[in-house]
Amino acid sequence: MSNAKILPLLDTTDGQGVVPCCPPLTERPMSAEEAETAARMFKALGDPVRLRLFSAVASHEGGEACVCDISDVGVSQPTVSHHLKKLKEAGLLTSERRGTWVYYKVEPSVLAAMGKLLAMPAAA
Questions:
Q1: What secondary structure letter does DSSP report for 15?
Q2: Are the C-beta atoms of residues 102 and 68 closer than 8 Å to each other?
Q3: Does pLDDT of 46 surpass 60?
Q4: d(CA 101, CA 106)
Q5: CA 112 – CA 85 distance, rounded (Å)
Q6: At 111, is the secondary structure helix, strand, or coil?
Q7: Can you tell me whether residue 97 is helix, strand or coil?
Q8: For position 122, what pLDDT does the model report?
Q9: Looking at beta carbons, which pairs linking 57-63 to residues 24 or more positions away fall under 8 Å?
Q10: Spatial distance between the Cα atoms of 72 and 44, rounded to a whole number of angstroms
Q11: Which residues pair with 65 in a beta bridge?
Q12: Within a 13 Å sphere around the CA of 12, how many CA atoms are in the beta-carbon half?
């Protein structure tokens, strides 16, 4: 049994289908719980290999990538699997096994939530 915490990035109560895990940084100070949630997300992306893998999945044609297509990041296959697992545990990736390969996907709503968290307010 895993003790991994899934990052609750989304709540679909805003009518647009996306609410970030936390308010935009410029809206108000974060609560301790919101900061913990955002920190888990940023910690998962804080490793250069994980960030490259996340980017490879997010930018891959069709919005999903086979592990066989994104594993060329300068580390061994077991290390790639470890980093993909960490991104999954953080709620940043989903995966689906198809035969012998695993396909990873970044949900568009996750990218939208991350963008809202870091967005600057519109100029008046």
A1: S
A2: no
A3: yes
A4: 17
A5: 22
A6: helix
A7: strand
A8: 66
A9: 57/93, 57/104, 57/105, 57/106, 58/106, 58/111, 63/105, 63/106, 63/108
A10: 19
A11: 104
A12: 2
pLDDT band at 87 (very low <50, low <70, confident <90, very high): very high
Report the pLDDT value the prediction gives residue 96, as an integer from 0 to 100: 94
Q: Read out DSSP for 17-69? A: S---SS--TTTSPPPHHHHHHHHHHHHHH-SHHHHHHHHHHHHSGGGEEEHHH
Q: Would you tell me how many other CB atoms lie within 10 Å of the CB of residue 39?
A: 14
The tokens describing 111, both together, are: 């990218």
Residue 20 has pLDDT above 80, yes or no: no
**28-38 per-position pLDDT tens digit:** 888 888 888 78
- For the record, the structure tokens of 65 come out as 């990538």
